[in-house]
Design brief:
The protein is an alpha/beta fold. It has one domain: Spore Coat Polysaccharide Biosynthesis Protein SpsA, Chain A. About 40% of the residues lie in helices and about 15% in strands. It is built from 10 helices and 11 strands. The chain has a 7-stranded mixed β-sheet. It is globular and about 45 Å long. About 35% of the residues are buried. Pfam families: DUF4422. It comes from Latilactobacillus graminis DSM 20719. This is Capsular biosynthesis protein.
């Protein structure tokens, strides 16, 4: 099988050198990084990167790549072979980046690989979004699903009331699954885009469609009963867990920053 896992980056950084990893440059840098594909080649939505984030690379792979297996990871977030490596050194993490042998073994049993679920413990996905972003994004998304994909509405509502989700817009899938998911996802997002005005959003909040898509993957997976497994995500850069936890609590009790 030909496998292309897109390693998305907006800057010229080292990426895994195994043949299953394909670096993809996103953003508006005029200079092309050596060894990277660009999300503005072929059929693309590269001009919307500020709003769709890493999904511009996902769209590019969906429309332009003929691989049998396709996936999306980030230069600073990668799947491991199974260990969490929460507090391990960069060297240990680098040594355990998901390899082709382990990937093929998983794909012999599953159609899709997702990150281990992130648990929010004290609030639902809907309330977490509301405390972190403009809630109209999810409200319009629900309305689009109700109008155009009514068979998904019960699943959408169920997912939004959960306290955990597969986040980060990371996945690896057989091409048939990758194609079916993206066909649905981008149709929903583009319909939402037509119905929402983000003119006065902050530079962070204009990333709206990247944020929304993180919550839609579980809707699609559950609705279509996809056979999937999970792998831990390794954060390749140093994490300030105290700061992250503080921001989570602040958003919960004080609301998003405008």
């Amino acid at each position: 099988m030909k496998t292309d896992i897109y390693v998305v980056s907006h800057k010229d950084v080292p990426v895994p050198n195994a043949t299953i990893y394909q670096p993809v440059q996103v953003g508006f840098n005029e200079n092309s990084f050596s060894g990277f594909k660009r999300d503005n080649q072929g059929e693309n939505i590269a001009a919307k990167n500020a709003n769709y984030c890493e999904l511009t690379a996902q769209y590019w792979g969906w429309k332009n790549d003929d691989a049998d297996v396709k996936g999306l990871v980030h230069y600073r977030r990668l799947f491991s072979n199974g260990k969490k490596h929460l507090f391990d050194s960069a060297e240990k993490k680098q040594a355990d980046i998901l390899d082709e042998e382990h990937l093929n073994e998983l794909l012999s049993r599953y159609d899709l690989i997702l990150p281990t679920k992130r648990n929010y413990y004290i609030e639902t996905l809907w309330s977490h979004y509301e405390h972190s972003h403009h809630i109209e994004g999810l409200e319009v998304t629900r309305q689009v699903i109700k109008e155009f994909y009514p068979e998904y509405l019960t699943t959408f509502d169920d997912v939004m009331q959960r306290k955990s989700a597969h986040m980060f817009n990371m996945l690896i899938a057989k091409d048939s699954v990758f194609t079916a998911y993206n066909t649905w996802l981008f149709d929903v997002l583009q319909k939402v885009e037509k119905q929402i005005d983000i003119t006065n959003y902050t530079p962070s909040e204009v990333r709206i469609f990247g944020y929304i898509s993180e919550l839609l993957v579980d809707v699609w997976v559950d609705q279509n009963k996809i056979n999937y497994t999970e792998l831990p995500v390794m954060f390749m850069e140093k994490q300030n867990w105290v700061k992250k936890g503080g921001l989570f609590i602040k958003r919960k009790f004080m609301g998003k920053r405008i």
